[in-house]
Amino acid sequence: MKQKEKKPVSVVLVGMAGMGQSYLEILLEGFPSEEVEVQSVVEPFPERSAYVEELKDRGIPVLESISQMYEGGRSPDLVVVCSPIHHHVSQTSFALEQGSCVLCEKPIGATIQDAELLIKATEIADLWAMLGYQWSYSRAIQALKSDVKSGKFGKPIRLKTLCFWPRDEAYYKRNDWAGKIKDAQGKWVLDSPANNAMAHFLHNLFYILGDKLDGCAMPSEVTAELYRTYPIENYDTVVCRAFTREDVEILFYASHTTSDDLGPMFVFEFEKATITYGEVTDDIIAKDHKGNTKHYGSPEAEHPLRKLFEAVETIREPKAILCGPEASVGQTLCMNGMQESVSSIMDFPDSRINSDPECGRRWVKDLLQELQDCYKKGILPIEAKLDWARPGKPVNRKSYHHFPGGK
After folding, report:
1. Reduced to 3 states, what is the DSSP secondary structure of residue 290?
2. Cα separation of 368 and 4, whole Å?
């Protein structure tokens, strides 16, 4: 008897500018037509994308809102949410309510209450939502997490990561929410290195320590130093120390205003081994105290949108979710703690800021070397007695369910 052919996975993309454009390229070109059908694209400003004419030629409608997409009674198998941060939870929850599974770009959103709403939405709908932290879908990170979870390296002691990715003025002018604390309607955005470009690496610190596949460790205390070089509302440089509820120290160093790129890199210290990445090689290497080593490969070795292929595969052949809301909430809780750790964001002294009008970029003199030294020593800038440093206060994240203020 001839086997019945499977229908293609029906997909709707929400947001086709920025990262959405990368998703659209793969949806249109990376899957055979018998595997994926792009039903429509939701984008209120389609002129921002280079794919407008191609969508017309293919007969794929571009709609203004996600609710409009469902009005015709169609419920796609998969909705891919690539909208701005402050729309992630509302659009993902709405899609779940309408019967679609969701792949949502990182981060979950801006606040812990939003993250918890999304967890509840998946439970009520009895459907899955994946979060697009791309390292979490790599074979290297999955193999490492499995060994950590099994106790191969003993108790975790300290995990630290560093990433310096310089950005220019155009980066903060590319939309109306970049670098903002709230949008024009008063919604929390909290756009920052820790909640956007480098959110992957903050998330990874907590994800690796999760006691289940789709889980993460949670911070119990957060102390941060937040600094600003560009004329934005929020910060462009952050150093943070957190402790998990199992008393593991977490250190995070990130900036958009160093002179050069550096990272991502990390060092994970355990009772029986030290795990490194990015300082010497792009291979994750675990070395135990007897000198034995294990190589995991690079989390950057695979397709940057492996998460999209994973989502489509999971629609076709249901399997365990690697990174859902419960595995991502540690990043959100820590990031909220960073914001509440300081009373106001500190501007770097004008005397330390260099700028190049031709490329529209600003950077802080010697910042790369100073923060790299802090990273190597596992200390905060205030502990290094740097003359520009200002301390943050420790904030408790236990039983914390609402930003700002806690309960």
Report:
1. coil
2. 59
pLDDT tens digits for 56-108? 999 999 999 999 999 877 789 999 999 999 999 999 999 999 999 999 999 99
- CA-nearest of 342, 17, 363, 332 to 199 is 332
Task: Give the count of beta carbons closer than 10 Å to the beta carbon of residue 13.
Answer: 28
Which residues contact residue 378 at a Cβ distance below 8 angstroms, ignoring those fewer than 6 apart?
A: 158, 160, 249, 251
Q: Across-strand partners of 14?
A: 42, 81
Rounded CA gap, 31 and 122, in Å? 27
Look at the block and give the residue holding tokens 């969508």: 55
Q: What pLDDT score does 3 carry?
A: 46
Residue 77: which H helix or E strand, with range? none
From first CA to last CA, the distance across the chain in angstroms is 60
CA distances from 6 to 3, 39, 232 (A): 9, 17, 50
Q: Are strands 237-244 and 249-255 parallel, antiparallel or unpaired?
A: antiparallel
- Name residues of the chain where pLDDT drops below 50: 1-4
Sign of CA dihedral 388, 171, 178, 404: negative
Instruction: Return the pLDDT at 1.
Output: 39
Domains belonging to the chain, first-starting first, are 9-106 (3.40.50.720), 135-317+324-396 (3.30.360.10)
* Whole-number pLDDT of residue 8: 95
Q: CA geometry: angle at 138 spanning 137 and 144, to 5°?
A: 110
Interval 158-208: pLDDT, tens: 999 999 999 999 999 999 999 999 999 999 999 999 999 999 999 999 999
- Angstrom distance (rounded) from CA 179 to CA 190: 7
